Amino acid sequence: MVDLHADSLLIGRDLTRRSSVGHVDLPRLREGGVALQVFGIATSVPAGMNIERNDPPGFDLIGFAFCVRLAQGCLGGPPARLAAQVDRLAALAESDPALVWVRSAGDLERLRAARERDPRTLGALLGIEGAQSLGGDPDALDRAFASGVRMVGLAHFFDNDYAGSAHGAAKGGLTELGRRTIARMEELGIAADLAHLSPAAIDDVLAIATKPVLVSHGGVKGTCPNARTLSDAHVRGIAATGGVIGIGYWKEAVCGTAPRDVARAIRYAVDLVGDEHVALGSDYDGGTTVAFDASQLAVLTQAMLDEGLAETSVRRVLGENALRVLGATLPRN
Ligand SMILES: [Zn+2]
Question: If you measure from the C-alpha of residue 44 to the centroid of ligand 1, how many angstroms do you get, rounded to a whole number?
Answer without folding.
Answer: 11
